[in-house]
Write a structure and sequence with these properties.
2 domains, 3 helices
């Protein structure tokens, strides 16, 4: 699964999230998930793993409530999903609205390239964050 959508969005804002995540993981490796059996950081992949990003955003961003109300999800918010089993995914809320104008669309990449979709409530939401530097 590609998580680079969020990384690219922050790069456009002048924030190198890949670097930020790597540096935080180097300093605080013990609090990051050990799901992959690593004993040290890997700057090439750490920022692409949703569980790592969730820890980073909890530490350095604002944790927002998870709700079933579209009005709670604003442009720029980061939303983490469970697609089933242990498969996680991440997207960023865009400024464009759904056809019915009730929700902002999600920018994400689930393997077929970056897309803009009305999929906010299609998956189980496991994290909701706001991050700025």
């Amino acid at each position: 699964m590609h998580r680079d959508v969020v990384i690219r969005a922050y790069r456009k804002m002048g924030i190198d999230l890949q670097k930020e995540v790597h540096e935080d993981m180097r300093k605080h490796f013990g609090i990051y998930p050990k799901i992959w059996g690593l004993t040290s950081t890997d700057k090439n992949i750490d920022h692409r793993r949703v569980p790592n990003l969730m820890v980073f955003f909890k530490r350095h961003g604002k944790v927002l409530p998870i709700s079933k109300h579209a009005k709670d999800y604003l442009p720029g918010d980061i939303v983490c999903f469970n697609l089933g089993g242990a498969t996680t995914h991440i997207g960023i809320m865009s400024t464009q609205k759904s056809e019915d104008q009730k929700r902002f669309l999600v920018v994400h990449n689930i393997g077929a390239g970056q897309v803009l979709e009305d999929c906010l409530f299609d998956f189980t939401i496991i994290g909701h964050y706001r991050y700025s530097k």
